[in-house]
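Researcher: Good morning. I'm working through a list of sequences from a screen, and I'd like to move beyond sequence-only analysis. For each chain I'm collecting a predicted structure so we can compare shapes side by side. This is the next one on the list. No need for commentary yet; just the structure.
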Amino acid sequence: MKIMKTNDILSEKQKLILELLKRNNIDKLKDFINSLETPLYFLNSTNFDLLTLALSLNCSFNIIKLIYNRCNYKTLNYVVKDIYHLYDMSNHKDETIVNYQNSLEVLMDSNNNVKSPLLVSLEFSDFQSVEFLINKGADIYFKINGKYILEILREENLLTMRKLNFLLKNGFSLKKFKIERLSNFEFKYIKKCLENFVFDTNFIKYLLNLYKNKAGISKRKFNHRVNNEINKIEIPMELYLKYLDRKDYKKVEYLYKYYGTEKTRSFKDFIIFYLNYFDRNFNKKSFYDFFNFIINNENTFPFSKEYAINENETIIINKKLKIVELIKNNNNLKLETFLKNNNYILHCLYSSKSEILNLINEYNVSSDIVDILRKYFLI
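Model: Good morning. Structure tokens for this chain:
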């Protein structure tokens, strides 16, 4: 990673130009630059970069272009360290400047105080400068301390859909940015990146050409083309598991459409295996909740409603049998533990108080068992 060379000789001139940048006055800035006996880029150092500083101070676009042109930047893919601590603006009369300083102090705590021009322009939503920098060679895949700019924006809570759309429009794609790196992003960003990459502009043009030329296509060939699009990316299993564990089944369902229809059987096995894995209390709640979703919602999961109903009915039957077994054995402790652990489903086991009373009478249970049943079934 390229880092600008340290130069501490010009600290007074750095302060002077910083004052001019704060005032956002291009005419006085030009006068200052013309008065210099050395090229403007001599003011830049490891801890001081005019372009990054001008971007962070929300200078006009004309000032941004002026600094870029006069500093003869060979690359925009560099970092500068600790640029925000150089000058105390807390006593400045202009509240706007003070607010900028406060914002910068928040930002400097992240990513070890290291910034690039493109990162700063995105942090401050300066899309005109973002586009200018990209056109001048700023790499949207440039890494800072091993992280992509998109990841840093998320860590700083500065990522917005508008910023992501802007990057996607300017070439950002999952072709280079591995989807695994999106695992900690909000789902809306994951969804947007997927939709931008799969069934992209080329696929849409292909469909439009078919329609325009009135060209016929077999169902088999069309499905093959669709599957090729889906197979452009493989959703990491960790992403499915993240939402499956959270019982966010709509998101799991959305990701499933990128799984590929030819792998339906393996997906069913995968879901069943991990529902069992997430059954941490060994009470089948993970299964019951998932199959309830299948029963109560229109969805594209490879499980029929009939299958889901049968599975949940089996869970209910087995739990009723277990309760009867514990009552017959007059096992107070195990019965209470079982009822407590399965409290989520008790309302489905017995539809009326009379059914519980029949159990009590049929097995001539102890008063302790009666008290436990009364506690959990409110009889």
